[in-house]
Design goal:
It contains 11 helices and 15 strands. The protein has about 300 residues and is an alpha/beta fold. The protein has one domain: Metallo-beta-lactamase, Chain A (4-Layer Sandwich), CATH 3.60.15.10. Strands 1-2-3-4-5-6-9 form a 7-stranded mixed β-sheet. The chain has a 6-stranded mixed β-sheet with strand order 10-11-12-13-14-15. Strands 7-8 form a two-stranded antiparallel sheet. α7 packs antiparallel against α8.
Length: about 300
């Protein structure tokens, strides 16, 4: 499994949710605009990958990374032919995907999300995995339209279907399918090329990640472009390999847990050794990943 090494520091920076300064954002972070298909783009900067859709009905954005980067995002959007986003949807609540909400909300964007995302953003959240506390977000950062299962957008000559995938990366994940463009934005249920972070403390589970991958695979064909939450632009074959890895890990770890092993004992068994070369080159080694997700196994 070969992955683009430039995505590793972006992944690490994004998932540790740093309070990056405006100066650092201006001087160090470059926003890369990657054409996907049919006026759909992927913006890569610091944090989760952004989906961008441009057309006569208005600019549609999927996620928005960190607040200090908003001016750079707007520059990239303008350069691609878009305007200040009219619509913004959050795939989940994590700060590397919602940090720009307040800026864009104040600029006029209508923010959408699953019900649970608004609830999480409106309260203080604690991430023991990264020793981080995120305070409640201001009103302008909160989604104003929420949904429990799905929502459909009809704009810019396409039909965008956003649907909830339960208990996956978090308890509030959504996937967005561009039906005409044949593009899917997976949010963080797909980390292309490495073990994914699963926020067990906030409803995420390994089994839910597998179900989410299956849901996306059912929509995809050989021509589908898949924008992952982290990592390079992907396709169905890469998602299938990722899903197979998740299933293998689930079967092995579930067996250890059913046998009464503690997380320390499970790590000591080294059950993911053969997967390490392909999937352990990102943020987590297999041992670290097991320690984070083991408590969320059925």
């Amino acid at each position: 499994m070969n992955i683009n090494k430039c995505f590793i520091p972006l992944l690490i920076a994004g998932l540790f949710w740093p309070a990056i300064s405006a100066a650092a954002a201006q001087e160090e972070v470059t926003i890369k605009t990657i054409p996907v298909q049919n006026s759909v783009y992927m913006l890569v900067g610091q944090g989760g990958n952004i989906g961008l859709f441009i057309g006569e009905d208005g600019t549609f954005l999927i996620d928005d990374q960190f607040a200090p980067l908003t001016p750079k995002h707007l520059e990239a959007i303008k350069a691609a032919g878009g305007e200040v986003p009219k619509f913004l949807i959050n795939t989940h609540y994590h700060a590397d995907h919602t940090g720009g909400n307040e800026n864009l909300g104040k600029a006029g964007a209508v923010i959408f999300s699953h019900d649970q995302v608004r609830e999480r953003l409106a309260m203080e959240t604690v991430s023991e995995a990264f020793n981080m506390i995120t305070p409640p977000q201001p009103k302008a950062a909160l989604p104003v339209v929420t949904f429990s299962t799905d929502i459909t957008f009809h704009l810019n000559g396409d039909t965008l279907y956003a649907f909830h995938v339960p208990s996956a990366h978090t308890d509030g994940d959504s996937v967005i399918h561009f039906k005409n463009a044949n593009v899917i934005h997976s949010g963080d249920v797909f980390f292309n090329g490495f073990y994914p972070f699963i926020d067990v403390a906030h409803g995420g589970t390994l089994f839910g990640m597998i179900r989410a991958a299956d849901a996306i695979l059912a929509l995809a064909d050989g021509e589908t472009k898949i924008i992952p939450g982290h990592g390079p632009l992907g396709d169905r074959a890469q998602l299938q390999a990722y899903r197979d890895m998740l299933r293998t890990a689930y079967e092995r770890l579930s067996r250890l847990k059913a046998n009464g092993m503690s997380v320390e004992e499970a790590v000591g068994e080294k059950p993911l050794t053969d997967l390490e070369a392909g999937w352990g080159k990102g943020m987590f080694t297999g041992e670290k990943w097991i320690s984070l997700i083991y408590g969320g196994l059925d």
